[in-house]
Structures are given as structure tokens and as C-alpha cells.
Design brief:
This protein is α+β, with helices and mostly antiparallel strands and 611 residues long. The chain folds into three domains: 10-81 and 120-208 and 307-360, 3-Layer(bba) Sandwich (FAD/NAD(P)-binding domain); 82-118 and 213-303, D-Amino Acid Oxidase, subunit A, domain 2 (D-Amino Acid Oxidase, Chain A, domain 2); 447-606, Phenol hydroxylase, C-terminal dimerisation domain (Glutaredoxin), CATH 3.40.30. It has 15 helices and 30 strands. It has a seven-stranded mixed sheet. It has a seven-stranded mixed sheet with strand order 22-21-28-25-23-29-30. It binds flavin-adenine dinucleotide. Flavin-adenine dinucleotide binds next to α1, β9, β17 and α8.
Length: 611
Amino acid sequence: MVSHDWSESTTSDCANVDILIVGAGPAGLMAACCAAQYTRSIRIIDLKESRTRTGHGDGFQSRTLEILDSFGLAQDILKQSTPDVEGSYWTSKKGCGHIQRVGIEEAGNGHNSRFPKALLNQGATEQILLDYLCGKHQIFVERSTLAQTLHIRDVADAAFPVSVGILHVTDNDNQRSKGRATVNARYLVACDGAHSWTREQLNVPTEGDPSGSTWGVFDIVPISDFPDIRRSCAIHSEGVGSIMTIPRENRMVRFYTHLHDGVEKTKVDDSSGVPHELVDRAARTMKPYTLTCKHCDWWSLYRVGRRLTTKYRPHDRVFLVGDAAHSHSPLGGQGMNVSMQDSYNLVWKLGAVLSGLFDNAIFDTYEEERRPVAERLMRLDAKLVEAYENGSTRSDKGVAETREDYSGFMSGIELIYSPNKLVSHGGSSSSASARHVKLGKRIDSVPVTTHCDGTRTQLARYLSMNGSWRLFVFSGDLRQQERMDLLTRFAEAFMKCPSLAKLNQTSFGNSKSSIIESILIHSSPTTAFNLLDLPDMFHPFDEELGWDYWKVFTDDKEHTTDVSHAYETYGIDEAGPCCLILCRPDQHVAWIGDSEDVAGLDEHFSRFVCK
Ligand SMILES: Cc1cc2nc3c(=O)[nH]c(=O)nc-3n(C[C@H](O)[C@H](O)[C@H](O)COP(=O)(O)OP(=O)(O)OC[C@H]3O[C@@H](n4cnc5c(N)ncnc54)[C@H](O)[C@@H]3O)c2cc1C
């Protein structure tokens, strides 16, 4: 196999790097995790001297857990987190002053995801990503390091056109310097938060309204007789106020409280460490139930505002990611999730272009795909804030209905990228169909059986983020000779196509996996034929490791008791044409066709593979 390694440098203090990531919050750390699959020529810097210790984001949507699972990290999150199973809604009748429960609903089962919603503080999440980066890839965040100057050379042949002047600081407040240096990068990934330094350097305006009402937020160990203290709650007490609560790890609960009449920070900060003013306001809203606390982990006051960048790629070599591109209130529990998802969308494209194999025109798809997500997020946020502030009785739609309307979006699972350079329009002359698979949507995982040893497993286990595109081949029952012939014909046509064969035999820098991995899902018993009798593309050979046995699976209904089956789930007719589904490295479906349409598959890649 040919291995593309474009890196000229591999040390973290190198002045010339492929990718410089500014900011080591959730977006920056996720960007580094993705980039590490392609290159070791990465630097990631952050002004802060340590990761987030307390507070900030705490909700994981199902899609974010799927993404973390593609690095093998979801279980680490789930082990520490609190499940978010039920949400309840409370309101008081005017004049009565006492709240009553008006409904309990499931928090959402993740919309066909293997993962539920889960709650864990942002700092713990950052630690899991840091451990992965340092343990698996020896990538370390350079702390107390401020990006201070930005200069981009517009010389077409400059290898490292982005120059960032960095300052090593000893003290974040007065920025006393321990030394300066310059980092030259091929690409700058700006994950520098809501007040993005990069956005400011490049004079990128934002849209939206940054000013809004004030809310208080605090993480406490509550002492309360409120019956739903371990459920997520939206509570509105007419004439008193609105609060939202979220159960957390270590007996903690996160409270958000709307400060409709404003409050001075100095009044809250009474040096006890507990924001009594905020806790008292929440307690008044929760009457007749009581609320006090002895331990507060973190509290803050913030203004609800919405801002969306006008450009996600303000320069050919610079990308705005996460809060740097969009910011809004925390009420939907989306910011950390969407920020990590931005990185997941962008960085595999960067890796593929850096390899010299893919055209940089694919970068347009970053904004094409992620801006609509942020726009929808702004609409959701405006509706949620209004619903919370006005209470479910007065707003057009209450919190419960708004959450219900947006539940698929909030889970991250229902997201569909529109046709673009990387996602086919569909509608080809192909006779195969996967009725329940949508172009542009991430593919559902299904239980399958590994042909080599009969293990029942989730298909997603084999879809790790390593830069590979996955071509799923649904051959049907290979005990039928004509279906085996169909598969053999497909494999021959694929390998005879020079561009596809090259992608099948080429890997990226850090990975042994090929750019196109073929995965066969047949519907015969595992004993029906010998795996090595299948065409070579389904058991690639490595001099050191021998054959790869984990590219062939069966969806053999007769021998399992599972309710969910691949052919049924995807809506593929076993006896019909042999169906092909192509997924991008981020698991979104790019192209669907049949095994006779190798030319169509080739045409899809020809739209972005360098000649
Ligand atoms: C109270 C609160 C509750 C929230 N709750 C949720 C929730 O439940 N779910 C959810 O998904 N999200 C939630 N969020 C939002 C979430 O915290 C953010 O969306 C998330 O942190 C954004 O990640 P990011 O990496 O884009 O930016 P950040 O986390 O802001 O990271 C940016 C980093 O860039 C660094 N930086 C900035 N400028 C420079 C520079 N010039 N040089 C070097 N470094 C620099 C900063 O030090 C910082 O570490 C909440 C936020 C708050 C405040």
C-alpha cells in the first residue's frame, strides 16, 4: 500500500506545521483528535493555563457520543456521566404561587442512535480528549500561550503562508511574557471561542443580536425536597420567574435562572462561594418546595445573545470553528456539541487536502454544511429563550413543544447535508435502492455478525475516524451463484478502474487504512463460504499483519434473535441488485448506487480527487 505522508516536521515546538489550532476548548481538542489521524505536524495552543475546571457545557447529544465513539471515547464519557432520561415541566397558576408538575416526558432516546443523552461537565470531557491526544498521539496542548499577531502571505506557492506570533505568558491577566515565537502553518483552525481573536484579526463581522436578557447559572449540591430534583426540569412560576435544572454527576444539579429584573454581580458575589442571591431566587420559583445548599462548584452571570459569523472561511487558509463561528444561550445544551461537530466536519477535509489527494474545492462544503446548522440553532435558541422567559402559558410555543419540534435536530442525528461536491444529488439511473438511507445523513449503525468469527457487533465499531471512506456492498445471499458472480464482477470492475483502485490501495499519513475501504454485508450463514475465497478487496493483505478479516459481515436473520437487521433497516432488497452505499469519513452518506455502476462511483470521486 502507498502511504502519503506530507509532514515536513513532527515535533510540537516546530516553527512550520501543517495545522495550527488556536484554542483548546471542546472544538480545538476535537480538531486535534481528527487531525492526529492524518499528521503529527500539528500545534494546539491556548491562553489558559489549564483545561476548564468547573462549569460551562454539560450536555451530550447522541450524535456527539457517536462521534466520540469513533475515537473509542464514548464509554469513557458514559462511565462518568449522568443519564438524561426524563424531563419534567412545572408551572404555577396565577395568584396561587405554588408550582405544580404539568408533565413528564422522555428526554429522547437519541433518534435511532445507540447512545442516549448524557450529562457530564465540560472539564471532564476536555480531560478525556486530552488523555487521548497525549496517550495515543503524543500531542500536548501548549498552555499559557497567546496568539497575538496574524500575518497571511498571499503568495500562491508559500508552503506555510499563515504566520502567527505567539507569546508564552506567565500570568494570563497582565500577559507578562516568558518569550515570543512565530508559528508558520499551512492552515489555521480558529477554535478561539465566542470572542474569537482570529475573527477580530480578519475583521469578520457577525450577524445577530449579542445583547439580550441576563441569566444566572450555578452548579450546586442541592438540599431540596423538590420531587424532580434528579430530573431535567423547566419550571415557571407566574410573576416570580423561570428556571431550568439539569441533574449532574457527583450529586450536583445545574440551575439556570432568568434574572428578568437584572442583578448586580457584586450582589451575588458575597465571598461565601455560594451565590445566595441566585439560589434564593431559584428557591422562590420552586415554592412550595425548599432549596438551599452548602456546596457550590461554579456560578456565573451571562447575557443571552446570538451571534453568527458572516464567513466560516474568512481566508483560504483560515477556518472559524465552534463558538468562534456561532454563539447563543446555553439553554438548548448545544454549544459544546455543535462546536465539536464543526471540527469533525472540517478536519477530515483538511487532512484529505493536505495529503495532496483531494482538491481544496472541498473546503467550500464546510460552510455549506455547517452554516445551515448554526442558522437553525439560532432559531431554536430564540424560541427556547422566549419560551423559558415567558413561561409555557404565555409564549406561542412552550419549552416542551419547542424541544419536541427540534428534538431530531438537537440530538444531532437528523442532520442532513444538502447535495454538494461531496454529497451526490442521487437520482442516478441506478436500479439499486436503500429506501431508508438518506443521502447527506449519517448512516445508522446496525447489529451485524463478523464473518470470520461469528461475533455479534455494531457496524459502527468498524467505522472509526481514520480518514477512510467506507463503501458498503450489500450482495445478498452469496450461496446463490449468480449473486457471487455479481459480486466478483463488481470487484473486478472496481479494481480495473485506475482511480478507484488507487484510492483503495493508498492510505493517509498516520493510518494503515485505505482511503476507500470496502465493507461487504452479505446475508448468508458465516459457514457458507470461506472468507478468503471472496474477492481480494474484502480481505486486504498486509506484509506484517496478514489478511484483514474485519471487512466482511453477515446479516443472517436465521441465526440471530435481533429485532434490527441491516437489510431491513436500510430498506435494501436482498434479492434485488447488489446495492452500494458510500459513506464519508464522518459517516455521512455521500453516494448510493448499484454494483454495475462503478462508473457512477468513479464519477463521484472524480469531482474532488486531484487528477
Ligand atoms: C453556563 C454555560 C453553560 C453551557 N452549557 C452547555 C451545555 O449544556 N451543552 C453544550 O453543548 N454547551 C454548553 N455551553 C456552551 C459551551 O461551553 C461552548 O459552546 C463551548 O465551550 C464552545 O467550545 P469552543 O471550543 O468553540 O470554545 P471555548 O470553549 O470557548 O474555547 C476557546 C478557547 O480558546 C482560547 N483562546 C481564545 N483566544 C485565544 C488566543 N488569542 N490565544 C490562545 N488561546 C485563545 C480560550 O482560552 C479557550 O480555551 C455552555 C456554556 C456556558 C457558558
